[in-house]
Amino acid sequence: MRLRCRWWGVSTGTGHRYFGLLLLRRHPSAVIQIGQNAVFRSSPSSNTIGLNRRCFLSADGGAELIIGDDCGFSATVISAGYSIRIGDRVMCGANVTITDSDRHPLAAAARHAGQPGVSAAVIIEDDVWLGMNVLVLKGVTIGKGAVVAANSVVSQNIPSYSLAAGVPARALPGTEVTP
């Protein structure tokens, strides 16, 4: 995998562990940077909760995908059209998807004309845990130490040290995650 990362022009720290094949796609003008000690679980036997795909990192032209140190990913898809920044010690449960772009415009005429969708930066701060099947959409910040419950859709900011759940995900009143 280290050779594959080098081939795709992905900047990596040391100490990574790969369980199965990590899929990569990087436009020549994009940046993908992975910190130290990342763990990528793509093999179905590497996670007992049930993985339905491989880990896949992609960055379109001019985009940046920056991953901090000591992060863990299980069948996680991260697709940067503009900017995705993930802090240190972030855990992504099985089958999480993170994207900063709609990929296609809402208006049918714009789609037919081949225009791109709207993109907006995603920031996931340190010590965040995204539960199984979480979907993180464009333009959100998930604050430090937040926990997002399984099957939630994050379409708005989540405060630090909160427990968030739902579609759309919202911080649950009266809950606070201890630092």
Automatic annotation (TrEMBL):
Keywords for this protein: Acyltransferase, Repeat, Transferase
Molecular-function GO term, any one: acyltransferase activity
InterPro entries in the record: Hexapep (IPR001451), Hexapep_transf_CS (IPR018357), Hexapeptide_acetyltransf (IPR051159), Trimer_LpxA-like_sf (IPR011004)
Record's protein name: Acyltransferase
Organism: Rheinheimera riviphila
Gene3D superfamilies xref list: Hexapeptide repeat proteins
Signal peptide span: none
